Amino acid sequence: MGESDYWLALEFRVCRELAGLTENHLRFLWCDGFIAEQYLLDGPSPCVKGRAWICDGPKQEQWEFTLFLNPPVGSRSEIEWSSLLPPENVTRWLAVDPSGKRIQMEPSAAVADAAERGAACGPRGRT
């Protein structure tokens, strides 16, 4: 997966994650795209920063985003974009701050979704 394909896939993945959140006021938000602006690869917390278009119904706002990279990479060309797209059966990789108009994504922090864990033991709802 190339970088441009990644940002499009992430847009749709963020939409699905927002729709599954337990906080009702966040479930109606959706993402209409990302613009990566800074690739901060040196330092203790390598990341990509930029702007995200976050919508609430027809209202669209520009938010800041941070995508944390793990493992660190030496250059932009070394980023394995496909490894940064969280699978459908995980959660807790997305932090949403509506008042600060920020989202943070940390794919390496993802954990199995409660609904997925419960599927092996019996029916449960998403927590």
Keywords:
127 residues; alpha+beta; five-stranded mixed sheet; 7 strands; 35% strand; globular; disordered C terminus
Description:
The structure is a single chain. With 127 residues, the chain is of the alpha+beta class. The protein contains three helices and seven strands. The strands form two sheets. The protein has a five-stranded mixed β-sheet. It is globular and about 40 Å long. The chain starts with a helix and ends in a 6-residue tail after the last helix. The relative contact order is 0.18.
Write the layout of secondary structure elements.
Elements: H1 3-19, H2 24-27, E1 29-40, E2 47-56, E3 59-68, E4 90-91, E5 94-97, E6 102-105, E7 111-112, H3 114-121
Parallel strand pairs: 3-6
Antiparallel strand pairs: 1-2, 2-3, 4-7, 5-6
Write a concise synopsis of the structure shown.
With 127 residues, the protein is an alpha+beta fold.
Helix fraction by DSSP (H/I, runs of at least 4):
10-25%
What is the makeup of the main sheet? 5 strands, mixed
Structural class: alpha+beta
Identify the overall geometry.
globular
The parts where pLDDT drops under 50 for at least 5 residues are 117-127
Strand order of the largest sheet: 1-2-3-6-5
Query: How confident overall, as mean pLDDT?
Result: 89
How far apart the termini lie comes to: 31 Å
Count of individual beta strands? 7
List the secondary-structure elements in sequence, H or E: HHEEEEEEEH
